[in-house]
Write a structure and sequence with these properties.
With about 325 residues, this protein is α/β, with parallel strands linked by helices. It has a domain at about 5-165 and about 200-225 and about 260-300: 3-Layer(aba) Sandwich (Rossmann fold), CATH 3.40.50. About 40% of the residues lie in helices and about 20% in strands. It has 11 helices and 17 strands. It has helices at about 15-25, 40-50, 65-70, 90-95, 95-115, 135-150, 175-185, 200-215, 230-240, 290-295, 315-325, and strands at about 5-10, 30-35, 55-60, 80, 120-125, 160-165, 165-170, 190, 195-200, 220-225, 230, 245-250, 260-265, 270-275, 280, 300, 305. The strands form 4 sheets. The chain has a 10-stranded mixed β-sheet, with helices on both faces. Strand 1, helix 1 and strand 2 (about 30-35) form a beta-alpha-beta unit. Helix 5 packs parallel to helix 6 (about 135-150), helix 7 (about 175-185) runs parallel beside helix 9 (about 230-240) and helix 9 (about 230-240) crosses helix 11. It is globular, with a radius of gyration of 20 Å. The two termini are about 35 Å apart. The model has no long low-confidence stretch (mean pLDDT about 95).
């Protein structure tokens, strides 16, 4: 699918984007990857990291700017839409800016891809889009609706969503923060002792991203079948490895949930088991093409899929951290 293709990645300089670029270069004979972001310094650092690879084209631009998106996506075959304001407290404090990036930016991606006859757009969403209580989740939920509905706007360009939880080591993620706090002598700060979260390594997330990108026909939401754990258990495993420090409970921040959900009970009737790594959620009133394509899938086995559905024990958390190179 990606061999001899031109690929556009919004938010390419982030941790997801850089891992995606690295794996695209290693797995496929891509013609060119357009790395689109608004940060000059991050682009310079990424260009150096990839040793000025001639297959990478760095473009300064903001997904809020339609003309910039339209120009950068000309002659592109596939789009990975990663750019977003994603930190819950930041989004809560910057409402209008979050809407401009996460909603208006996604609309720009949709319209530019249709105008430029892009083959497929892959949007990376979040567990926080499910029954959202914070602005980030609300904007990602609207983003999902925008992407899925875009399949009705074009007979050529296909749109698909990928929904996942926390990726270990992504920018601003909790595991590097905990390790940093422990090495500094503590305290290690958690928001609530009952909090649970989904986790996956970056490489696993990108592998799943490729699979859903290749297998999808447009209109699906592929949901990563991710393990989850109590944040207190995660903290204790890291403390056992890096040294004893005080654990301090700070209280839930604005917009935070105790548990996250990847498939809600409302979506469960439209969800299916795709394979061992993925669930699949179809839109209400989905078309005949989707019905035929997925008619043989087994039904979704849960009432909902939350971060309390399958909890890792400490041994499994340690193995997960080792796989992610954090131990």
């Amino acid at each position: 699918m990606f061999n001899n293709s031109r690929i556009f990645i919004s938010g390419a300089t982030g941790s997801w984007g850089q891992t995606l670029v690295n794996m695209l270069l290693n797995k496929y004979e891509v013609e060119e990857i357009v790395c689109f972001s608004r940060g000059e310094l991050q682009q310079v650092l990424m260009k150096r990291k990839f040793k000025n690879n001639p297959k990478l084209k760095f473009v300064i631009g903001d997904i809020r700017d339609y003309n910039a998106v339209y120009t950068a996506t000309k002659n592109v075959d596939y789009i990975f839409h990663l750019a977003a304001l994603k930190h819950v407290p930041v989004c809560e404090e910057n409402v209008q800016e979050t809407i401009k990036t996460n909603i208006d930016g996604t609309i720009n991606i949709v319209n530019a891809s249709i105008e430029n006859r892009v083959k497929k757009v892959i949007d990376v969403s979040s567990d926080k889009a499910v029954e959202p209580i914070n602005l980030y989740g609300m904007t990602k939920s609207v983003g999902e609706k925008t992407i899925i509905q875009a399949n009705d706007l074009s007979d050529y360009t296909k749109f698909v969503c990928i929904r996942g939880g926390n990726v270990m080591g992504s920018s601003g993620s909790v595991i590097p923060l905990f390790i940093e706090q422990i090495k500094a002598g503590g305290p290690l700060t958690i928001t609530h002792k009952e909090m649970t979260r989904f986790f996956l390594t970056l490489e696993e997330a990108i592998d799943l991203l490729f699979k859903a990108s290749i297998d999808s026909i447009g209109g699906e939401t592929f949901v990563m079948n991710m393990p989850a754990c109590y944040i207190t258990d995660l903290a204790e495993v890291l403390i056992d490895e890096y040294g004893k420090v005080e654990v301090k409970e700070m209280g839930i921040r604005p917009g935070e949930k105790l548990d996250e959900t990847l498939i809600s009970h409302h979506e469960s009737k439209l969800s299916y088991c795709y394979d061992e790594n993925y669930f699949l959620t179809l839109p209400v009133g989905y078309n005949q093409k989707l019905a035929i394509r997925y008619q043989d899938l087994d039904p979704f086995p849960y009432n909902e899929f939350s971060s309390k559905t399958k909890i890792l024990n400490k041994k499994e958390i340690k193995e997960m951290l080792q796989k992610g190179n954090f131990l």
